[in-house]
Design goal:
The structure holds two protein chains of two kinds. Chain A has no helices and eleven strands. By secondary structure, chain A is mostly beta strands. Chain A has a single domain (4-98), classed as Immunoglobulins (Immunoglobulin-like), CATH 2.60.40.10. In chain A, the strands form two sheets. In chain A, strands 2, 4, 5, 6, 9, 10 and 11 form a seven-stranded mixed beta sheet that branches. A four-stranded antiparallel beta sheet of chain A has the order 1-3-8-7, with no helix packed on it. Chain B has one domain: Immunoglobulins (Immunoglobulin-like, Sandwich), CATH 2.60.40.10. Chain B has no helices and eleven strands. The chains are: A mainly beta, B mainly beta.
Chain lengths: 112, 112
């Protein structure tokens, strides 16, 4: 299975600012998934990031709020823009390799 | 709309007890069902069940897929305090490479 390095592990941010989360995979993968887990909730898919094309966003998530980059097959970033306290969540990236789904270590974001 | 429902949402047991966690699903073109354990941020993989592999066991944990009832159970025998976590059920649907659909999870607390 793949190993994903996700950074930062946690951050406390002021409302109105932006935070960029990075995920580095130790192998080339076609798709990377970005999830959000709000307090007490399950994982909700934000978007699917493909290399060389625009990310595909799920209902309720827009590119202006959560821009994603996917410059190559091993790396992706998710930016949480113009943050509000409602954005306080755990953010996770995930990849599928050989039918196995692996998650990054997660980013715990607190917006104050 | 595809959905995954877990029950109970939370559970408190004593060390040594046996617990059964439930997961039911309604998805288009079911491919596999996965169980994860989440202790801090990143979910860790437990089992994947498919049409060709409907029962899995690892130590004190076991899981069964009932394709007729569109459900799965996760059993934990002789529970330990280290089993305290959120247990997530997820389903993979449609074509290869799609993201997982998660249930809300069951929060298990094991007291000594």
């Amino acid at each position: 299975s793949a190993v994903i390095s996700q950074k930062p592990s946690r951050d406390i941010c002021q409302r109105g600012t932006s935070l960029t989360i990075q995920c580095q995979v130790d192998s080339q993968v076609t798709m990377m998934f970005w999830y959000r887990q709000q307090p007490g909730q399950s994982l909700t898919l934000i978007a699917t990031a493909n290399q060389g094309s625009e990310a595909t966003y799920e209902s309720g998530f827009v590119i202006d709020k959560f821009p994603i980059s996917r410059p190559n097959l091993t790396f992706s970033t998710l930016t949480v823009s113009n943050m509000s306290p409602e954005d306080s969540s755990i953010y996770l990236c995930s990849v599928v390799v050989d039918y196995g789904y692996t998650f990054g270590s997660g980013t715990r974001l607190t917006v104050v | 709309e595809d959905k995954v429902v877990q029950s109970p949402l939370s559970l408190v047991v004593h060390e040594g007890d046996t617990v059964t966690l439930n997961c039911s699903y309604e998805v288009t073109n079911f491919r596999s069902l996965l169980w994860y354990k989440q202790e801090k941020k990143a979910p860790t993989f437990l089992f994947m069940l498919t049409s060709s592999g409907i029962e899995k066991k690892s130590g004190r944990l076991s899981s069964i897929l009932d394709k007729k009832e569109l459900s799965s159970i996760l059993n934990i025998t002789a529970t330990q305090t280290g089993d305290s976590a959120i247990y997530l059920c997820a389903v993979k649907a449609n074509q290869a490479g799609t993201a997982l659909i998660f249930g809300k999870g069951t929060t298990l607390s094991v007291s000594s």
